[in-house]
């Protein structure tokens, strides 16, 4: 069984995908965290995020994987636990540009497909249903209003100790949406076989139950 979950930033798809995988006892693969980890590594090494060739080489040589620690998933980049660091405002601002490079996406998609071989998975991202798991049994598209996504992202940053400006966050999310839907490779889109779930007025538990009901049918 393969379940693909796509959607824009702040729609709640990562939390939903993680809970769904836990409920079904499947492997959860957060592809967004992989791009974030690569972005974190590029920023750490002061690499120009507009340089596609250097970023592709970085993607080729960087080891990114997941571990489970006390039932929480940790993101490991070249031996460093970067789970918290990859959610920083600096990474938020740069990850869309890094993920837009075609060769970077091709390399990352290959790694993601290797992770999904021979296991039941829930995988979330931007191009999962179309590019990574085109044969997925279920292709969910999780969305929410820009106001709700801004509120969620602001709460996430506040809980991590960052100062937030909701107007700036809203603009950043809208910019991210534009970049994600207009890139030439792996663009975010609703597919013909996408199952759209709007979480604007749903709690995470309600959204999870909606997905479980659809899968149960």
General description of the model:
The protein has helices spanning 13-24, 31-44, 52-61, 89-99, 102-115, 128-132, 146-159, 166-182, 204-216; strands at residues 2-6, 27-30, 64-69, 72-77, 80-81, 121-125, 138-143, 195-198. The strands form 2 sheets. Strands 2-6-1-7-8 form a 5-stranded parallel beta sheet. α1 (13-24) packs across α9 (204-216) and α7 (146-159) crosses α8. The longest helix has 17 residues, at 166-182. It is of the alpha/beta class and 217 residues long.
Biggest sheet overview: 5 strands, parallel
The first-to-last residue Cα distance is 15 Å
Strand content: 15-25%
Shape: globular
Which stretches are low in confidence, meaning pLDDT under 50 for 5 or more residues running?
none
Q: Measured on Cα atoms, how large is the radius of gyration?
A: 16 Å
Under CATH, the topology is which?
Rossmann fold
CATH homologous superfamily label: P-loop containing nucleotide triphosphate hydrolases
Summary, kept brief:
The chain has 217 residues and is α/β, with parallel strands linked by helices.
Topology (SSEs and partners):
Layout: E1 2-6, H1 13-24, E2 27-30, H2 31-44, H3 52-61, E3 64-69, E4 72-77, E5 80-81, H4 89-99, H5 102-115, E6 121-125, H6 128-132, E7 138-143, H7 146-159, H8 166-182, E8 195-198, H9 204-216
Helix pairs in contact: 1-9, 2-4, 3-5, 4-8, 7-8
Q: Which tags fit this structure?
A:
alpha/beta; Rossmann fold; five-stranded parallel β-sheet; globular
């Amino acid at each position: 069984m393969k379940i693909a979950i796509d959607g824009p930033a702040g729609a709640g798809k990562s939390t939903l995908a993680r809970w769904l995988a836990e409920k079904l006892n499947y492997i959860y693969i957060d592809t967004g965290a992989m791009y974030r980890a690569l972005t974190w590594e590029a920023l750490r090494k002061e690499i120009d995020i507009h340089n596609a060739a250097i970023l592709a080489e970085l993607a080729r040589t960087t080891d990114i994987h997941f571990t489970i620690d006390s039932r929480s998933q940790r993101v490991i980049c070249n031996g460093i636990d970067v789970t918290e660091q990859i959610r920083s405002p600096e990474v938020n601002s740069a990850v869309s540009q890094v993920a837009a490079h075609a060769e970077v996406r091709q390399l990352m998609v290959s790694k993601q497909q290797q992770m999904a071989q021979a296991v039941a998975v829930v995988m979330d991202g931007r191009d999962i249903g179309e590019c990574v798991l085109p044969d997925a049994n279920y292709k969910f598209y999780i969305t929410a209003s820009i106001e709700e996504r801004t509120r969620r992202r602001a709460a996430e940053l506040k809980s991590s100790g960052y100062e937030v400006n909701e107007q700036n966050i809203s603009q950043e999310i809208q910019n991210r949406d534009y970049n994600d839907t207009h890139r030439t490779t792996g663009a975010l889109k609703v597919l013909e076989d996408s199952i759209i779930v709007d979480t604007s007025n749903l709690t995470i538990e309600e959204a999870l139950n909606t997905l479980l009901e659809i899968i149960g049918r």
